[in-house]
Design a protein that fits this description.
four-stranded antiparallel sheet, mainly beta, 13% helix, 2 helices, single chain
Length: 109
């Protein structure tokens, strides 16, 4: 399907969407794994911008900005999965931490 310039610019000019991540697996030996259920990356932006997935989002843990070198991002079957690299943190993440992801993502049913 060919997209028009209007379709592309409407997708690009969307507001940045944010979501609170929920714990998925905190017992993994290398990662703390969190998920943004029912969210995905905007497809049209992938065709226009050639950025790595980590560069398309920003993550805040308890209001502190996290470097994109400290986590990996994947699109799973049920949403966006964020894996925080345990060796890069001086503290432990748990259910009490508020982890906020924002970027060019969208909610789907």
């Amino acid at each position: 399907m060919k997209r028009t310039l209007l379709d592309i610019t409407q997708k690009i000019s969307r507001k940045v969407v944010g979501v609170v991540l929920t714990p998925m697996d905190l017992q993994d030996s290398n990662y703390w794994i969190f998920e943004a259920k029912n969210y995905r990356f905007n497809d049209i932006l992938r065709e226009v911008e050639y950025r790595k997935t980590q560069d398309r989002i920003s993550i805040h843990i308890n209001t502190q900005n996290i470097s994109n070198r400290d986590f990996l991002v994947e699109e799973g079957k049920t949403g966006i999965i964020v894996k925080f690299i345990k060796s890069n943190f001086q503290y432990e993440l748990d259910n009490g931490d508020e982890i906020y992801l924002k970027g060019d993502i969208e909610k789907y049913a």
